[in-house]
Fold this protein.
Amino acid sequence: MPRVCKVTGKKTQVGMNVSHSMRHTKRTFLPNLQKLKFHSDILNRDFSLRISTAGLRTLTKHGGLDGYVMSKPVSRLTEDMAAIKKAIEKKVGKAEKPAKKPVHKATRSARLVKKVEAKKTAAK
């Protein structure tokens, strides 16, 4: 089983040990992986994942496994996480995000001009 984080994709890195005499020897830097179980409320099952401590903080920030998976596009997820997202979308249906109006530069600059004019009249 490769040492890869399922959330962040962190892998084993290669570097050098440098001794006092400046002699270089190869070494590996291993990611801090932990094997943890996460519960999916939507799928109502547990997933056992090997994730790094940075990945654990990421999952906590997004409110758990379901929140993390649904907040990211499939292209930004690892293969295992993309499979979980597809299973959730299959069960629930694709949640539609509300469409945002594009803010054009002209609109933004017009708002800025109004704010400046309002400050000038308030200063008088």
User: Anything to note?
Assistant: The radius of gyration is 24 Å.
